[in-house]
Amino acid sequence: MPKILLVEDDASIIESLSQYLESEGFSLRSVSGQRDALDIIDKEAFDLILLDLSLADGNGYGVCLEIKKNRDIPVIFLTASGDETSVVAGFEMGADDYIPKPFRPRELVSRIKNVLRRYDKKSNVTLIEGLKVDLDKGQVSREGEEIYLSALEYRLLVIFIQNRGILLSRNKLLDDIWDIAGDYVNDNTLTVYIKRLREKIEKDPANPTIIKTVRGRGYRMD
To answer: Keywords on this record (predicted)?
Structure first.
């Protein structure tokens, strides 16, 4: 189920779009301002952003620029400003589509699906918390600086990426690492590798936000 963030300060639009998009099979979160939008994007993963140009604080351009700086998330502008200057400015800042208000819900859904399809065909790159993982090239980096992982550390990271949002028990991780690495990895070794991986990819390894511990149950990457 694609997860969408709606950044909009019109309560009536939020209500109507929430009902319609959820009925079309999308999961929707909404915020009204620039500050809240940037805050939630740092904490949660989204497949697409629906972004109003005029916000309660700031504007959609600022949000779009910040999103595109470190993340590979598609952005569709929703705005009453349909003039050519606004449209061009939006695309120059990295917007993937631009829909003037008032819009027809079916057209919006069609455009959302088209944008998501385009992203599905792009290179196999995952961006999370400023970390960039290119699965096609086998590269991990942050802010342009490559992070060097051992073979097993990288495989462990790939397992989490391929199971984003899913709780992985320690037994599940051990089974998957055994299958991939072909080497015996025991419970203590798994603890060591997760610690080493966090030290390399987390901004604050003591308080991890990429690979989270679910006490007594395992680990999860949101």
So the answer is: DNA-binding, Phosphoprotein, Transcription, Transcription regulation
